[in-house]
Fold:
Amino acid sequence: MGDVRRRGAVALGITGLVAPLALVLGTAPAQAASCTTQTGPYQKKVEKFLGRPVDGRQSSGDCKAIQAFQNKHGITPNQGYAGPVTWGVMDLMLKQKAVGNKPNKEGKCPTNKGRIACVNLTLQLSWIQDGSRLVYGPVPVRTGRNNYETRTGLKKIYWRDIDHVSNIYDVPMPYSQFFDGGQAFHSVGLSMWNPPGSHGCVNMTKTTAKKYWSLLKNGDDVFVYGRKPGT
Structure:
């Protein structure tokens, strides 16, 4: 989320949801946190998600795998504990993957508006559709945290700034497309599953934000619905 002041001047689709499940064990940067020996309340579920032996008991290998996942997605504390925050992220990933290529199966995003960008806060997914035809997505997004919720309802893109910088948080907001006050679609250099969320904007990967920039224009509709977990 940022101010609306100018400073200075279906490709990814489901692949974006499947890839994280295959990449969660990628190399993580060195961290100072030590690995815990404690078994977490979601041990078996986390072990299954990560492809570990499912025995419900913490091992050195389990801890390292969980810690790598936590480091990748900015989850703290990052001591390899199978707790509610870590499992919450994994559970959300599984629910996103289950959507497949029918994000508007329940018909909650309007199909009588022509081209429209839809945002499902509950599943942290966004897509672009034209009538009932899926144009792009669904892709994971990162919306507003508790007390900074992304506001729901039907809106319109009213201003776009490809090189926007927020004067509230003094951070770059590339490919910003504003649709409600200071709330906008824009790219960030964070995991889409990094808790607790944004300050109200709909964060996207650079690839997604660029695609939205190319597919949308001023005056296009945006519909936000649902409720982000934890808000």
Observations:
- The helical segments are 15-23, 43-49, 60-73, 84-99, 206-215.
